[in-house]
Amino acid sequence: MPDTPPAKLSISRKVILGVIFTLIMLGLIALVSLISTQRFLAISASVAEVREVLERSERAQRFFMEMESGVRGFMLSGDDSALVPYEHGQSFIIQELQALRKLTLDDEDQQARLSRLQVLMGRGFAVHGNGIERRREGGAAAAAQYFSKVENRREEDEIFTQIRDELNEIDQAERTRLNELYEMREAVGSVNRSVVFGGTVLTCIALLVAGIVVLRDISDRKRAEEKLEFERNLLRQIMDTIPDRIFVKDRDGHFTRDNAAHRLHLNLKTEDGIVGKKDADFFPAELANRYREDDSAVLNGTKTMVNVEEPGATPDGREIWLETTKVPLMGPDGKAIGIVGVSTDITKRKADEEKLRHFARQLQRSNEELQSFASVASHDLQEPLRKIQAFGDRLRARFTGQLGEQGSDFLTRMMDAADRMQKLIQDLLQLSRVTTRALPFERCDLADTVRGVLADLELKITSTGARLTVVGLPVIQADPTQMRQLFQNLVANALKFQAPGMRPDVLIAGQTFPNHNGELPQVPPGEPLCEIRVQDNGIGFSEEFAEQIFSPFKRLHARTEFEGSGIGLSVCRKITDRHRGKIVANSVQGQGATFIVTLPLNQPHSP
C-alpha cells in the first residue's frame, strides 16, 4: 500500500498548540520560580536565624566580658555599684543561652556546645560569686589574698578561656553555616534566574517560531486562496467561452452556477439572476416537471443521460431541440450533492439532418433512375443500335454496287456513328457500374493485378514495342475488379498517347508511407498509405488541363488523332474516390505524363 502523507495541521490548531505550549512553559517557569522562591525564603529564614544566633552569641560574649569587668572593679573598689553590669549580664547571658538553645534545636553540635557553655557559665558564676563574697567579708585584703593564690587564678583563667572558646566555636560554626546558606541562596537565585531567563527565552523562541509558522501558513493559505480564486476565474472564463449551455443544480433543483451561454438562453445578464432559481421559474410547468424528473432519476442512479436528444423550449415559448447530458455532482464523501448539466441547441442540426434525409431520398431516387438508365442502356438502347448495325451490314453486303460511291460513303458514316454510339453507351455503363456493381474490399495484390492487365494488353504492347517496368507495388484492401479497371485505363492511355514512331516507355512504381502530412484528409493520421506512379514518355498535355481530363467526355485531341470516348479517366477518378484515395496528373506538353494514385492500405469496412 502506498504511504499516506501525514495530515497537515490547520492554522487554528497550530495557534492552539502554540498557546498550549506557551501556557505550559509559563506554568513550568511559575512552578520553578515558586519552588525557588520558597527555597530562597527558607534559606533567607535560616540566614536570619544564623544571624540572630551570631548576634546573641556576640551579646552573650559581651555580657560575659562586662560581668568580668564589673567583678574586677568591685574586687578592687569594693563599690557595689560596680556589680550592676555583673548582675544584669548574668541575667542576660542566661536569656541568651536559652534563646540560642531554641534557635539551634536542629543542630546537635551547637546544642552540645551550649550545654558545655552553660556548665562553664555556671562554674564562672560560682568563681565570681566566691570572689565577691570574699571581698565583702574580708575586704580588700581578703580579695588580694584570694587573687594571690595561683590555683585560684589558674582555675579562673581556665574557665573563662573555655567559655570564650566555646563562644568562638559557636560563632565560627554559625559563620560557616551562614556562608553555606549564602552560597545556597546564591545558587538558588542563580537557578531561578536561569530557569526564568531560559524559560522566557524558550517561550519567546516558541512564540517566534509559532508566529513564523502561522505567518507562513497564512501566506500559504493566501497563496492557496489566490490560486483557488485564479482557478475559479479560469473555470468561469472557460465555462463562459464554451458555446454549450452548462449549469449546476443542488439536490433540490436550485441553480447554483451556469455559464454565459446558459444565461443567454434564459435572457439573463448576470449569474445572480439564476442562483437559487428553479426550472419552474423559467419554463412551462410541463417542461419544468420533466426536467425535475430527469434530475431525480440521474441523482438516484435510475437513469443515465448522455447526449440525449430531446425537445425543449425557450423562455419565450419557442420550440427547440436540445442534446443534453446530465451527471451527478459528487461531494467529498462520495455522495451526490447535485447535478451538472451540459445542453447544446441542435435545432439547426436537426433541420440539416432533415435536409440530409431529403437529399438522401433524392439521391436514392437518382440512383434508382441511374440503375434504370443502366438497364435501358444495356438493353433497350443497344437493341436499336444492333438492328441499325445488322441492317447496315446487310445493305453493304447486298446493295453496295447499287448505292454508288456517295451512298457507300453515307453507309460507312452511318455504321461508324452506330459503333461510336455503342462505345459511348458501354463507357457510360462502365462509369455507372463503379458504384452500382461495386464488390466488397478484400486483399488485393497490385503486382498480380498489373500482370493481368499487361497480359490483356499484350497485343498492343507487342505491336508498339513498348517497354514496361513494374516495381514496388504493395498489397492493399480494395475491390480487385476496380483495381484492374484502374490500371487498365492508365496503362492503355500511356500506350495510346504516343507520338508517331515513338516507342512507349512506361514505369509503374509504388511506395508506402504513413499519413502524417495529411495526404488523404479522409484517412486518420498515421494510417499507412501507398502511392502508385504511372509515368510515360508520350505526348503529354498542358498543365492547365490537369484537372479537366478527369471530367466525363473531356477530350484534348480529335477523334481522328486518338480513339476513345473520354470516359476512362473519369472512371479512374471515381474508383479512387470510392477507395478513399485520390488521383492527380502532372505533365508538360511533349514530355510525357505522370499519373499519381494515392490509396490507403486498409479500408475500415466493405461498402
What order do the helices and strands come in, and which of them pair?
Layout: H1 11-77, H2 84-103, H3 108-148, H4 150-241, E1 245-250, E2 255-258, H5 260-265, H6 285-300, E3 305-313, E4 319-330, E5 336-345, H7 347-380, H8 382-436, E6 442-445, H9 446-456, H10 458-464, E7 467-471, E8 475-478, H11 480-496, E9 505-514, E10 528-535, H12 568-578, E11 582-587, E12 593-600
Parallel strand pairs: 7-9
Antiparallel strand pairs: 1-2, 1-5, 3-4, 4-5, 6-8, 9-10, 10-12, 11-12
The strand count comes to 12
The 3D shape can be described as rod-shaped
Count of structural domains: 4
> Separation of termini?
52 Å
Instruction: Output the helix-strand order.
Output: HHHHEEHHEEEHHEHHEEHEEHEE
Number of helices: 12
Sheet with the most strands, sense and barrel status: 5 strands, antiparallel
- By secondary-structure content and strand pairing, the structural class works out as alpha+beta
Low-confidence blocks of residues: 555-562
Mean pLDDT: 78
How helix-rich are the residues, as a percent range? 55-70%
